[in-house]
Amino acid sequence: MIEDKNKHDPNRRKFIGASAVAGLTLAPGVSLLSIAKAKPLDEAVTSEKRWGLLIDTNKCASGCTACVDACNQENGLNRGDEKEARPEQKAQWIRKVDLRNKETGHEVSLPLMCQHCEHPPCVDVCPTGASFKRADGIVLVDKHICIGCRYCMMACPYKARSFIHEELLHQVEYAPRGKGTVESCTMCVQRVDAKGQARDPACVEACNQEGHKAMFFGDLKDQDSEISIQLKNFSSSAIREDLQLNPGVRYRGI
Amino acid sequence: MKYLRNMSILILLVLLGSTSVFAETPKPYIPKGNAEKCVEPTADMRKNHMKYILHHRDETMHEGIRTSKHSLKACINCHVVKDDTGTPVNYKSDKHFCNSCHHYASVQIDCFDCHASTPGQTGETASMIDSVSRVSAAGGKE
Q1: Per residue in A137-180, pLDDT tens?
Q2: How many angstroms separate the CA atoms of A120 and A117, rounded?
């Protein structure tokens, strides 16, 4: 029987999880390295990893836009190419959102980007297959196939995607972007796939440099990764959990 | 009638004569790459370069395979053409490596609507370009 590689089988995943645990108990003396090791450049990504982010809103400072600025710089956004666009039309992969509880007056500030859902609505609605989820959970737009219909922008409950209305000239070499296509946070896929060790996305790096340390990046399927340990030990939530999209971006303190 | 026929023969002769002037069709000037040799034999690349980069494009986009062989970025890095001031020309210029043939053959490509057409465009350099253009804009009327 030929097995469909793309077919989602939750039982298989459970089996892998169980076998990993068994491996741990069988060899207690062997330490399993849990550093976010990158795959070799010539190997395809696999579903053995699922990249995710954890954002601690208690540490996120209102008014700080370090993550947004770093994202813009890393991916060549907001370089003055979009001359006609209104501010709300301009490409933005991360937005800072301030929330206030009307009852208590409690305020939180958080960065909101593509949530890299396990069941992404943008992928469901895309008529050409341009919007897709990589095996390692990163949701991307294949701009070679995108026809710019913007159906995904309508479908995304997080308003995470932008459409490019104008000709661009200042793209960076590892983040191609262009007129007539939709784009969103790529979790800095060029850094994730980097040779040697997977680097933190630009936003996480900037948050750490700023000293807030409100963002964690790592492999959600690796039980020993920093992000998994954080998620296991402290409560966290997903935005619009009711939609059951199982986002790869999780928040603490909201 | 006879006059007309004579005229048409004359015109035909003139036309034939003029074509002989253009018998030497100008050939495109294709700048050499900076490496010793290309990733595939030159003849193969001339014919099949689009197939190689198309294949690699899908592998990179969907599977995260980021080897440099057959990657557009590697083509751009090696086949960079510089202008008189020593700065790499972008795809707007006729001198750009891809344009040297594509303009000649009237084959339009849309790679550079999205991809950077000059090497070394990183977040850092892009911000430098931006600050330079901002300074020059501030110096001007705008």
Answers
A1: 999 999 999 999 999 999 999 999 999 999 998 899 999 999 99
A2: 5
Among A221, A58, A236, A217, residue whose Cα is nearest residue A135: A221
Range of the domain at A161: 59-252
Q: Mutation test of the interface with chain B: which of A146, A173, A187, A193, choosing the one with the most B Cβ atoms within 10 A?
A: A173
Q: Is residue A237 part of a domain?
A: yes
Residue A4 falls inside a structural domain: no
Return the residue of A nearest to B76 by Cα. A173
- Partner-chain contact B126 A79, CB within 8 Å: yes
Q: Tell me whether B31 touches chain A (CB under 8 Å).
A: no
Q: Model-level pTM?
A: 0.79
Q: For the domain that residue A126 is a member of, what is the CATH number?
A: 3.30.70.20
ipTM exceeding cut-off 0.85 for this assembly: no
| Residue B113 near residue B41 (C-beta atoms within 8 A) | no
DSSP secondary structure code for residue B89 in this structure: P
Is A79–B130 a contact, with Cβ atoms under 8 angstroms apart?
yes
